[in-house]
């Protein structure tokens, strides 16, 4: 594993987003020769075609794959050299408004078409299961070109934070399966907030002169430094019977019981449905989550409205106003008046093993568990805390690879607006170590939902930090 490198500060990365975009107008990209770059990052033809065939047939040992191997290693065949910087790109062509399809075409100019995967047709878990397995199979047969390609492989994701997290989660399965090394990952920001991209210096928006910028990005990911990023596992447990429309990162799993050392209120349902997933940025419970969920469905139902980061942010702001975040008293829904009515939080603090119940402030209507130094398009709601305050509260300095989550609360839209403007910090609630469990109780009934956050067996994900 690479030595840990701290992400750049949020304020610096947030303010540099426009600067990075303006740099695209310079001639910096012209110094990278297009043909030389293509030569260094493009796989030998038989490898990239074999990987594509394996993914399309969903079989790493398909007949077409075997034929390509035999042809490349037939008697008299010319020897091939591995790429110096083998790179695979995943692109969400639906992200970035009109730039998605154009960016895909540009990437296919700079490398072989088979190395650019559109996530609408090829899912990252298919690449891991079949594409990488194809390389590994070739390497096991003594193919040194395939072995070096697999060892030096790097991933570039063009999309928003959700897309990047989806790819990182699938790559994380390699560690569980003992299929090392796990390829490090870089980002081309195409989303609305791009907090993951900001935290590691890749910028917060798609650059203006993006054609030159893409060349610089491919060059940087080829030999840039890597940093570590905490990987967190989320388990959602709820009474059986209701199907959830879950994101890609959350999948149905078998029932997982609560920690027996944790004392909970009420009785658990007889049958439950469980969902498991991984997150790297943050997750929220309450009004913030309600607005994000509504915006997600609105964007899916009317994609023509979401044509880029600016329009997305305008829609998101408008949707916030319509959901009671600013103007309504939420008198009909006690859960939206205050999470204290429906939420219980139990945590394990750093250097401690016992559970501790945390009081949910009565004024809080949104709880956020934050892993990154960036939230809400480059803001830092946790704030830069003074040493005396941290000592008093038992807090540690927050980093993306410290094995800690920061839990904070937002009271209402006006409070959130001041936090987002960085005039004040959010309401600090806790900083936890490996686990956090939130128990929701509605209308005096028994437990209706359980969140468990676990640092897991693979605490770090390798990600490129742009210098």
From TrEMBL:
SUPFAM superfamilies: NAD kinase/diacylglycerol kinase-like (SSF111331). Gene3D superfamilies: Probable inorganic polyphosphate/atp-NAD kinase, domain 1. InterPro entries: ATP-NAD_kinase_N (IPR017438), DGK (IPR037607), Diacylglycerol_kin_accessory (IPR000756), Diacylglycerol_kinase_cat_dom (IPR001206), NAD/diacylglycerol_kinase_sf (IPR016064). GO terms for molecular function: ATP binding; ATP-dependent diacylglycerol kinase activity. It is an enzyme of class 2 (transferase). Signal peptide: none annotated. This is Diacylglycerol kinase. It comes from Castilleja foliolosa.
């Amino acid at each position: 594993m690479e030595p840990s490198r701290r992400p750049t500060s949020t304020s610096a990365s947030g303010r540099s987003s426009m600067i990075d975009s303006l740099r695209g107008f310079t001639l910096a990209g012209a110094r990278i020769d297009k043909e030389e770059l293509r030569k260094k990052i493009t796989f030998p033809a038989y490898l990239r075609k074999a990987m594509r065939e394996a993914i399309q047939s969903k079989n790493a040992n398909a007949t077409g794959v075997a034929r390509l191997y035999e042809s490349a290693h037939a008697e008299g065949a010319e020897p091939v050299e591995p790429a110096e910087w083998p790179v695979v790109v995943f692109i969400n062509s639906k992200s970035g408004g009109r730039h998605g399809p154009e960016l895909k075409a540009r990437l296919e100019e700079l490398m072989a078409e088979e190395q650019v995967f559109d996530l609408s047709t090829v899912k990252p878990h298919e690449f891991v299961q079949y594409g990488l397995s194809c390389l590994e199979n070739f390497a096991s047969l003594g193919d040194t070109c395939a072995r070096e390609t697999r060892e030096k492989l790097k991933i570039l994701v063009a999309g928003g934070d959700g897309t990047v997290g989806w790819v990182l989660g699938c790559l994380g399965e390699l560690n569980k399966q003992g299929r090392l090394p796990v390829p490090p990952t870089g980002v081309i920001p195409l989303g609305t907030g791009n907090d993951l991209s900001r935290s590691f210096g890749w910028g917060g928006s798609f650059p203006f002169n993006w054609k030159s910028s893409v060349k610089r990005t491919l060059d940087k990911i080829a030999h840039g430094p890597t940093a570590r990023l905490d990987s967190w596992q989320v388990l959602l447990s709820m009474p059986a019977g209701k199907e959830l429309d879950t994101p890609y990162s959350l999948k149905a799993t078998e029932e997982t019981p609560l920690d027996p050392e944790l004392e909970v209120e009420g009785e658990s349902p007889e049958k439950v449905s469980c969902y498991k997933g991984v997150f790297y940025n943050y997750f929220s419970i309450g009004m913030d989550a309600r607005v994000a969920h509504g915006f997600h469905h609105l964007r899916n139902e009317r994609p023509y409205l979401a044509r880029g980061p600016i329009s997305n942010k305008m829609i998101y702001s408008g949707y916030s106003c319509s959901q009671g975040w600013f103007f309504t008293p939420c008198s009909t829904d006690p859960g939206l008046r205050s999470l204290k009515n429906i939420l219980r939080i139990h945590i394990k603090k750093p250097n401690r093993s016992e559970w501790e119940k945390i009081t949910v402030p009565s004024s809080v209507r949104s709880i956020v568990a934050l892993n990154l130094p960036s939230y809400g398009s480059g803001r830092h709601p946790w704030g830069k805390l003074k040493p005396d305050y941290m000592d008093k509260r038992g807090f540690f300095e927050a980093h993306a690879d410290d094995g800690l989550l920061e839990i904070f609360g937002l009271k209402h839209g006006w409070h959130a607006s001041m936090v987002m403007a960085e005039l004040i910090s959010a309401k600090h609630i806790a900083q936890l170590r490996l686990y956090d469990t939130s128990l929701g109780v509605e209308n005096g009934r028994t437990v209706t939902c359980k969140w468990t956050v676990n640092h897991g067996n693979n605490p770090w994900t390798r990600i490129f930090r742009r210098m």
